[in-house]
């Protein structure tokens, strides 16, 4: 069984000669190779499924403390808004000042996932701090709730860097991603409100 194999590039050229006249599209080729794998009894190796990283209660508390003691008020407001609303990063960076309704403690999300609009509540206890931040942004003539010092809205990558920075300071085993913050919202609220 140690016969020399034809190089994959050369074999691909040979196969292409045979099927080119049929003008195959992607779906056809996908199906063809599925049947070819079955005919040759080639098993597709399955990737081992890893359990998701779940921070311990101690890690969550450390992260929470590091964020709350931060000297950068805007960073703290970004993390708190993610925590208290469970919005996606793509939604967070697109929140305009006019989208925040302090009377009813809610934020309008425009063109969220699936291009859908929705209303997201935030806790009454967060209202005063969010209002202070919004007033500060209005004084800077900002359009968005969160803008960089260059008067531009944050990018998805910029928000992820902020979260990674606090994960590192808190000594987390892994970075606490925005997606994980969404999933841990209830845990956070249960532990700290």
Which terms summarize this structure?
single chain; 193 residues; mainly alpha; 3 strands; elongated
Helix-strand blueprint:
Blueprint: H1 8-19, H2 26-39, H3 57-68, H4 73-85, H5 89-92, E1 100-101, E2 106-109, E3 118-121, H6 124-139, H7 156-169, H8 178-192
Antiparallel strand pairs: 1-2, 2-3
Helix pairs in contact: 4-6, 4-8
Describe the fold and architecture.
The structure is a single chain. The model has no long low-confidence stretch (mean pLDDT 86). 52% of the residues lie in helices and 5% in strands. A three-stranded antiparallel beta sheet has the order 1-2-3, with no helix packed on it. A hairpin with an 8-residue loop joins strand 2 (106-109) and strand 3. It is mainly α. The radius of gyration is 25 Å and the shape is elongated. It has helices spanning 8-19, 26-39, 57-68, 73-85, 89-92, 124-139, 156-169, 178-192, and strands at residues 100-101, 106-109, 118-121.
Relative strand content: 5-15%
Helix content: 40-55%
Question: What is the H-and-E element order?
Answer: HHHHHEEEHHH
Report strand order across the widest sheet. 1-2-3
Biggest sheet details: 3 strands, antiparallel
Shape: elongated
The end-to-end distance, rounded to whole angstroms, is 67 Å
Output the structural class: mainly alpha
The total beta strand count reads: 3
């Amino acid at each position: 069984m140690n016969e020399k194999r034809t190089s994959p590039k050369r074999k691909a050229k040979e196969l292409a000669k045979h099927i080119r006249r049929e003008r195959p599209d992607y779906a056809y080729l996908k199906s063809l190779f599925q049947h070819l794998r079955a005919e040759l009894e080639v098993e597709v190796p399955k990737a081992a499924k890893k359990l998701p990283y779940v921070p311990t209660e101690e890690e969550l508390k450390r992260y929470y403390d590091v964020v709350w003691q931060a000297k950068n008020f805007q960073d703290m407001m970004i993390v708190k808004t993610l925590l208290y609303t469970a919005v996606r990063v793509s939604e967070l960076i697109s929140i305009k000042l006019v989208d925040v309704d302090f009377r009813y403690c809610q934020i309008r999300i425009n063109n969220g996932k699936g291009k859908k609009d929705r209303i997201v509540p935030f806790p009454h206890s967060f209202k005063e701090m969010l209002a202070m931040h919004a007033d500060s942004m209005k004084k800077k003539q900002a359009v968005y709730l969160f803008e960089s010092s260059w008067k531009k809205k944050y990018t998805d990558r910029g928000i992820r860097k902020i979260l990674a920075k606090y994960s590192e300071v808190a000594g987390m085993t892994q970075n606490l991603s925005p997606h994980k913050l969404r999933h841990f919202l209830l845990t956070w609220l249960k532990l700290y409100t």
